[in-house]
């Protein structure tokens, strides 16, 4: 479950932290427990990013549908 703090993150903040988590995991040198904690944090950050992107897609789809509706009204006049 995503925390309230995660919900307050901007897309850019979540993305940047996710990049850092991936960098640390790829670098290695962490214990199994640290790696698991990083992985879990990465999953949460990915969810935050996904929600932002899904919201952006919905806004774009709505704007495109609105524009198509206006075009259809003009064509019908």
From TrEMBL:
It catalyses: Exonucleolytic cleavage in either 5'- to 3'- or 3'- to 5'-direction to yield nucleoside 5'-phosphates. The keyword Cytoplasm applies. Its main location: cytoplasm. It is found in: Cytoplasm. Coiled coil: none annotated. Its EC number is 3.1.11.6. It holds the Pfam family Exonuc_VII_S. The keyword RNA-binding does not apply. Keywords: Cytoplasm, Exonuclease, Hydrolase, Nuclease. Heterooligomer composed of large and small subunits. NCBIfam families: PRK00977.1-3, xseB. Belongs to the XseB family. HAMAP family: Exonuc_7_S. Bidirectionally degrades single-stranded DNA into large acid-insoluble oligonucleotides, which are then degraded further into small acid-soluble oligonucleotides. This is Exodeoxyribonuclease 7 small subunit. It comes from Streptomyces bangladeshensis.
């Amino acid at each position: 479950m995503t925390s309230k703090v995660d919900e307050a993150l901007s897309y850019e903040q979540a993305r940047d932290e996710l990049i850092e988590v991936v960098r640390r995991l790829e670098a290695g040198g962490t214990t199994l427990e640290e790696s698991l904690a990083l992985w879990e944090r990465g999953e949460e950050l990915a969810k935050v990013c996904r929600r932002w992107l899904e919201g952006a897609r919905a806004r774009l789809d709505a704007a495109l549908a609105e524009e198509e509706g206006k075009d259809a009204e003009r064509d019908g006049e």
